[in-house]
Amino acid sequence: MSRYSIWNIARHAASGHRRWAPAWRSPEAKKRYDVVIIGGGGHGLATAYFLASQHGVTRVAVLEKGYLGGGNSGRNTQIIRSNYFYPESAAFYDRSLKLYERLPRELNFNLMLSQRGVLTLAHSRHDMEANRRWFNSVKLNGVDAKLMSREDIARIAPSLNLDSHYPVLGGFLQPRGGIVRHDALTWALARGADSLGVDLLQQCEVTGIEVEHDRVQAVQTTRGRIATGKLALVAAGHSSILAKMAGFRLPVTSMPLQAMVTEPVKPVLDTVIMSGAVHAYASQSDRGEIVIGGGADMHHSYAQKGSVLTYRINARAILELFPWFSRLKIMRHWAGIVDITPDTTAILGKTPVEGIYINCGWGTGGYKAIPAGGETLAHTIAHDRPHPLVEGFNLERFYTGALIDEGAAAGVAH
Amino acid sequence: MFQIECPYCGARDEREFHFGGEGHLVRPGESVDDESWAQYLYFRDNPKGVHFEQWCHRFGCGTWFNIARDTVTHEILRVYPITDSRPERKSA
């Protein structure tokens, strides 16, 4: 792998930038791998990268039915944060945030990490009380947070309308939260995994999973049969379909989650603003576009497009906070299929089939979980037992009742 | 936005309706084991294709009813009363 550096840019400039090598290979599929990962999004690629870099497992293939990062990894709003309520979630997401802080250097790739702060708004006395409780829990979990008065908010976000129909009374900030460019993350992980020997197989859709005596044997794909002793299902909204091929069910519902971006404008917003009360969130990208997200379409769907109804509801919600956005044109509008669990906590660990591992159920908030999701799944696969950070994220919790109900505390910014 | 044919009121916009999840779930008896109870509470088919689901005309007549809907195209293949049993897949 040729390193990216200012010297290399200067050297390639001399030849007109025509001689850069591709960032990863496009290999033929082998007949057998030690580990096969289904899903070439952030979580799948991170799993492959950490299997190779932390556990020395390099006979690994990542199977992607489309192109790398073409699913939810390229459809999210790029927000990272770890201001979670329950200790299990906070420990996991803060590990993820710390990896986000470390990965640009480790992967030799500019992820455009911008820790501009994530501000959660309170619009009523009850919101204020809930926010203070949430803030205290975040502090007890050892995560950074700062209570913000209405005046503090006016100072850091002057473009925000504090006197909307639901006036802003206060809020709390996670200063280390922010945004990371999602394509860069996918490409950096792909390049890192490839350089350690992982085969990235694109245009390779899984059509069947061979299981004998409750043990995985192989996967059938559009690029042939691939034998493996360890298989990881990392397919977000399509997890239920893969699980069915392997003969088990999941407590997951697939729904579309929409986002949109406006035309680019000059810098007006240098923090991430989220509001649970109006259910919308916004940030401004480096290109000047306002990136807007809100609630999911509340019905089952595998169509990667959202309904105009939800699009309108989300647009209306963000206009409560920023009425002047009404002058902006929407440039693009899209949806990803998110996998929602009953307790809105992910499922990560072993499955009823020996040799099959799963990483799914991130629902509307999987992007920020990518580095730790990959690291803990790689550990779980390499040692055949759950990583300590994700012991509580097992599938059995739905039988035992040990749910981690982040629904109310998880917030809306993803 | 799609339209749904309410059995009582006729075709109305999606916004008037509330989605009630997978239909035809049968509550198991009291003596059932934890695994079967969890299957009833939490585990779902979540198919890519025809899904049998419940909707309520919340901002209308309030009727609960079943529909068979394609989760890829969102096409509504059939609307039928809440008391009807689950149709055969091919007749949906």
Task: Please explain how this structure is put together.
The complex is a heterodimer of chains A (414) and B (92). Chain A is an alpha/beta fold. Chain A has helices at 6-14, 42-55, 87-106, 125-140, 150-156, 182-195, 239-246, 308-321, 370-383, 397-400; strands at 32-38, 60-63, 79-80, 118-122, 146-149, 170-174, 178-179, 199-201, 206-212, 215-221, 224-233, 253-262, 272-275, 280-284, 290-296, 330-340, 347-350, 356-360. In chain A, strands 1, 2, 8, 9, 10, 11, 17 and 18 form an eight-stranded mixed β-sheet that branches. An eight-stranded mixed β-sheet of chain A has the order 5-6-4-13-14-15-12-16. The two termini of chain A are 32 Å apart. Chain B is mainly beta and 92 residues long. Chain B has a domain at 19-25 and 44-92: Folate-binding superfamily (Folate-binding fold, 2-Layer Sandwich). Chain B is built from one helix and six strands. In chain B, the strands form two sheets. A four-stranded antiparallel β-sheet of chain B has the order 3-4-5-6, with no helix packed on it. Chain B has a two-stranded antiparallel sheet with strand order 1-2. The mean pLDDT of chain B is 93. The chains are: A alpha/beta (414), B mainly beta (92). The interface between A and B is medium-sized, with 22 and 26 residues.
Secondary-structure blueprint of this entry?
The complex is a heterodimer of chains A (414) and B (92).
Chain A: H1 6-14, E1 32-38, H2 42-55, E2 60-63, E3 79-80, H3 87-106, E4 118-122, H4 125-140, E5 146-149, H5 150-156, E6 170-174, E7 178-179, H6 182-195, E8 199-201, E9 206-212, E10 215-221, E11 224-233, H7 239-246, E12 253-262, E13 272-275, E14 280-284, E15 290-296, H8 308-321, E16 330-340, E17 347-350, E18 356-360, H9 370-383, H10 397-400
Parallel strand pairs in A: 1-2, 1-11, 2-8, 4-13, 11-18
Antiparallel strand pairs in A: 3-7, 4-6, 5-6, 9-10, 10-11, 12-15, 12-16, 13-14, 14-15, 17-18
Helix pairs in contact in A: 2-6, 2-9, 3-9
Chain B: E1 3-6, E2 10-13, E3 18-22, H1 34-41, E4 50-56, E5 64-70, E6 76-81
Antiparallel strand pairs in B: 1-2, 3-4, 4-5, 5-6
